[in-house]
Amino acid sequence: MATVLAIETSCDETAVAIVNNRNVCSSVVASQIPLHQTYGGIVPEVASREHLITINPCIEQALAQSQLNWEDIDGVAATVAPGLVGALMVGTTAAKTLAIVHQKPFVGVHHLEGHIYATYLSESTWEPPFLCLLVSGGHTSLIRVEDCGVYEQLGATRDDAAGEAFDKVARLLNLGYPGGPVIDRLAKTGNPQAFPLPEGRVSLPAGGYHPYDSSFSGLKTAVLRLVQKLEKEDKNSFPVADIAASFQETVARSLRKKTIACALDYGLNSIAVGGGVAANSELRKQLQKAGKQHNLKIHFPPLKLCTDNAAMIGCAAADHLNRGHISSLTLNVTSRLSVTEVMQLYQKSN
Ligand code: KG4
Ligand code: ZN
How many angstroms does the Cα of residue 20 sit away from the middle of ligand 2? Predict the structure, then answer.
């Protein structure tokens, strides 16, 4: 029953949490979103510098909130891949330093495995096998979860991630960063049937479409062309809410169809959704409805566990630590690493 202090700095959130298996003892998230809003997106160098400023206060706050001491903590974890290298280095260096000073094992964690573990934090009786739809700013993946560290990637995006598509469409509609929440809000007052848009299917060389892969760059370009056409037609009444609703409905429909088909084809009767886009109200609505129709159990973690946080990293690290999976202090951070390769991060303890 491991208790872990975990650090997450792979992107634009500095987060520290203390987790005992599937229980969160404390969780601190310092968001950098306001800082990056000025630039309309994440600036990697700015993110690293901000992590440096924020990391120590976050560690202190997480320890204070948990009311635990270093004697109660069995290991120190950090996200080591994938993500922005400079940003990952800040959290990983802090975690390794704490591990050395307090003589605790260090556990490197894959960011996507963390998102998968957010499910266990919010549904403590949830167990593999299940299908996980991971939709964030950097990823759109359908992953078969077999066991701790054992994953099969069944679907992915060929270009833009779902969250990236929300962010890019929001930028071309002048809605600011991040795009997901504002499009979600605006879409509530728009007509989702106003503009038919392409669903983002991936053609196969032999004909037909890939059943589980997505492609969102064509959808983004279709929105761009639509915006250009509408701007030419009438500058005074631009139907921004209708565009937001049509775009959002198209992304949700595309993800829902692939996810349900994948679960049914692989005989998986439960689906967990993770990543920032799991906050999307239309995706939630469509998947819940389809889940009922096909008798599939669908789980969405609460919003604070969908977006980046360190509690999910701690939960994954605790499970690895319980199984004797620890990382070398020489383990380096990496910007890219498939979730199918997470076991590379560990050496077996004796
Ligand atoms: O998982 P996350 O916090 O960070 C990454 O690992 O990328 O996801 C951030 C992404 C952003 O692209 C943001 O626009 C999107 O999640 N997002 C949403 C919503 N809330 C956040 N997308 C659609 N609808 C939302 N309500
Ligand atoms: Zn994430």
Answer: 21
Ligand 1 binding site (Cβ under 6 Å of any ligand atom): 11, 136-138, 163, 166-167, 178-181, 184, 275-277, 279-280, 307-308
Is 235's pLDDT higher than 80?
no
* Residue 106 three-state SS: strand
From the candidate CATH numbers 3.40.50.300, 3.30.420.40, 3.20.20.80, 3.30.70.270, the one assigned to the domain spanning 128-303: 3.30.420.40
pLDDT of residue 233: 86
Q: For residue 349, is pLDDT > 80?
A: no
For a mutational test of ligand 1's pocket, the pick from 277, 281, 282, i.e. the residue with the most ligand atoms closer than 8 A to its C-beta, is: 277
Mean pLDDT, the chain, rounded, equals 95
Give the closest residue (by CA) to ligand 1 atom 13: 180
CA distance 1 to 116: 19
pLDDT tens digits along 145-200: 999 999 999 999 999 999 999 999 999 999 988 899 999 999 999 999 999 999 98
pTM of the model: 0.94
Between the CA of 74 and the centroid of ligand 1 the distance, in Å, is 32
pLDDT of 348 over the 70 cut: no
- State in Å: Cα 344 to ligand 2 middle: 20
Q: So what's the pLDDT on residue 35?
A: 80
- ∠ CA(32), CA(96), CA(18), 5° rounding? 60
**Nearest-atom index, ligand 1, CA of 139:** 7
Cα 23 vs. chain centroid, distance in angstroms?
A: 20
281 C-alpha to ligand 1 centroid (Å): 12
**Beta-sheet strands, E only, within the chain:** 3-8, 13-20, 23-31, 75-81, 106-110, 130-135, 140-147, 150-156, 270-274, 297-299, 325-326, 347-348
Residue with the smallest CA separation from ligand 1 atom 23 is 180
In the CATH scheme, what is the homologous superfamily, with its name and number, of domain 3-118+306-348?
A: ATPase, nucleotide binding domain (3.30.420.40)
